[in-house]
Design goal:
The chain has helices at 7-19, 23-35, 41-53, 57-65, 76-88, 92-102, 110-122, 126-138, 145-157, 161-173, 180-192, 196-209, 215-227, 231-244, 251-263, 267-279, 286-298, 303-316, 323-335, 339-351, 358-370, 374-386. It is mostly helical and 387 residues long. Pfam families: PPR (PF01535), PPR_1 (PF12854), PPR_2 (PF13041).
């Protein structure tokens, strides 16, 4: 008696209805929320993102246009929500056209232009992003470290070191000091380009710049050190330096350390890290278990460990296998000759409408052919023919 749904519950239901493409029912709930005074900025953001996700661009803009009739003020913050929604769905040109109409009666701010810089970079149109910075200056806004870091990351995604450092030099010359995100981006670029010494030299730049490393920086550093054979240094970062500097581990930290230890075939140490993870506030996910499973399948006499991990994944953690996990398991089972389990998992994948990779189909086809399982050969052949 007297119970009323909370603001959080209303927002969650709007999000779920939008996610399920139940747009009409979502609208009904939004109207009810508006009448009862539950419509907030968070609700508006969820409605816009779900409409954009359903590719109903005109509805997104129409919803924004009607906000005043719903008692909401159309200000810079709400305009930025609209532009950010369109840009994240890679409709940057639509966002740009909308902005040109709105800017005459809603003043933009620096964040407005950062939205466009990020949007243009996300569709690989960095020249437009650089032009946006000039437009930003023309209206009296100074580019921030975030603005420049977005451009640097875009060039890093193209593995364009020269351009990335050109932007870095420009921002430093303008008195815009790089932050830890900028340095992490550059370190990862060097690692991707297999310039590992240069990647590790970024650590010295971070120290000389007085930047405080964060979790993402340390995660990248642990991975680079581990992949370059400097396992003891990676362990020192994980066990000592992060704690010493007050930087918390996250799920990715544990996953990275487990992956590195598996890479060096130190499965017992990897299991120890897994136990540490379980005792922390970070819950293992599928990415946690995949390198362990891959390693255990490659080693002999580790069947007990494989069964223990699978029990952990399915029974204790209630995790559903994804494409990568199915692939790891089926390939591993084929290597150890357990074709019965491999075909069961293959069937499960198909039932769940998860498309197996071509390599998985070919490997399983070869194994069942060798065992004269002709009915299953035909099944795989029919599946690949129609997929």
């Amino acid at each position: 008696m007297g119970y009323k749904h909370t603001e959080f519950a209303h927002d969650r239901m709007v999000d779920l209805l939008g996610k399920m493409r139940q747009i009409d029912r979502m609208w009904e709930l939004v109207e009810k929320m508006n009448q009862e005074g539950f419509l907030t900025l968070k609700t508006i953001a969820k409605v816009m993102r779900r409409l954009a996700g359903a590719r109903r661009w005109k509805d997104v803009i129409e919803f924004f246009d009607n906000l005043e009739y719903m008692g909401c003020v159309k200000n810079t913050e709400v305009m930025n929500l609209l532009l950010d929604t369109l840009c994240k769905e890679k409709r940057v040109e639509v966002a740009r056209e909308t902005f040109l109409v709105l800017k005459n009666h809603i003043a933009p701010n620096a964040y407005t232009f950062n939205i466009f810089v990020h949007g243009w970079c996300s569709i690989q149109r960095i020249d437009e992003a650089l032009w946006t910075i000039q437009e930003m200056r023309g209206l009296g806004f100074r580019p921030t470290v975030i603005t420049y870091s977005i451009i640097i990351k875009a060039y890093c995604n193209q593995l364009n070191l020269a351009k990335a450092y050109e932007i870095l030099d420009r921002m430093v010359a303008e008195g815009c000091i790089p932050n830890i995100i900028t340095y992490t981006t550059l370190m990862n670029l060097h690692a991707k380009s297999r310039q590992l010494d240069e990647a590790l030299s970024i650590v010295d730049k971070v120290k000389s710049a007085g930047c405080k490393p964060d979790t993402l920086f340390y995660n990248s550093l642990i991975n680079i050190l581990g992949r370059t054979g400097q396992l003891s240094e990676a362990l020192h970062i994980y066990e000592v330096e992060m704690k010493m500097n007050g930087v918390h581990r996250n799920t990715s930290t544990y996953n990275t350390m487990i992956s590195i230890l598996c890479y060096h075939k130190q499965w017992q140490n990897a299991l120890n890290v897994l136990e540490e993870m379980k005792k922390s506030l970070c819950m293992p996910d599928l990415q946690t278990y995949r390198p362990l499973l891959k390693l255990f399948f490659s080693e002999e006499e580790l069947d007990v460990q494989i069964h223990s991990l699978l029990n952990d994944i399915v029974i204790k953690r209630h995790l559903s296998f994804d494409l990568d996990t199915y692939t790891t398991l089926i390939h591993g089972l084929c290597r150890v000759g357990n074709i019965g389990c491999a075909t069961t998992l293959f069937d499960e994948m198909i039932d769940r409408e998860i498309q197996p990779r071509r390599r998985t189909c070919n490997m399983l086809m070869q194994e069942v052919e060798q065992r004269n399982m002709y009915h299953y050969v035909e099944k795989i052949w029919n599946f690949t023919k129609h997929s």
